[in-house]
Amino acid sequence: MKIKLTRELSVRGESLTELELDLDKLTGQDIIEVEKQIDTAGDGRALVLPEYSKVYLAAVAARALKVPREALNLLTARDFTRLTQAVQNFLMRPDLETEPDLKAEETVRRKS
Predict the structure, then answer these.
(1) Distance in angstroms (rounded) separating the CA atoms of residues 11 and 68
(2) How far apart are CA 83 and CA 62, in angstroms?
(3) What is the pLDDT of residue 43?
(4) 95 compared with 112, residue with greater pLDDT
(5) If you count Cβ atoms within 10 Å of the first and of the last residue's Cβ in the chain, which end, N or C, has fewer?
(6) Residue 12 CB neighbour total at 10 angstroms
(7) Which band of pLDDT confidence, cut at 50, 70 and 90, is reported for residue 56?
(8) Distance separating alpha carbons of residues 67 and 23, to the nearest angstrom
(9) Where do the domains of the chain lie?
(10) Can you give the pTM of this predicted structure?
(11) How many CB atoms lie within 10 A of CB 75?
């Protein structure tokens, strides 16, 4: 899945205007490694529901994108949220498209 960025992201000297997120290539071992990274990088508290943690979701995305986790922290808030929502949808709602439906979201906001 491609996520178009609202602002370019520089990773290892390369300017990216979109992210190609292929979560299907991840394995259970990848997920375990991400959880271990989060456990050792934090304050020692275990994540009870990691699928609801932006830190965890960003780490899974970074693993799939093969970029440093810290690089994703430089995304705009909107891009970061879209990326983490896509990961969360993939992990928790396999029946949904992984790309958040932002058009539907905007339509709801306009009606309010």
Answers:
(1) 8
(2) 10
(3) 59
(4) 95
(5) C
(6) 8
(7) very high
(8) 14
(9) 2-111
(10) 0.77
(11) 22
Count of beta carbons in the 10 Å neighbourhood of residue 26: 17
* Phi then psi dihedrals of residue 110, to 5 deg: -65, -35
Two structure tokens written together for 14: 């390369």
Neighbours of 60 (CB within 10 A): 28
Quickly tell me which residue has 């929502």 as its tokens. Answer: 85
Per-residue pLDDT, averaged over 59-87, amounts to: 96
Return the amino acid letter for 38.
I
Stretch (H or E) spanning 100: none
- The residues with which 4 forms a beta bridge, in sequence order, are 18
Helix axes 28-41, 54-65, angle to 10 degrees: 130
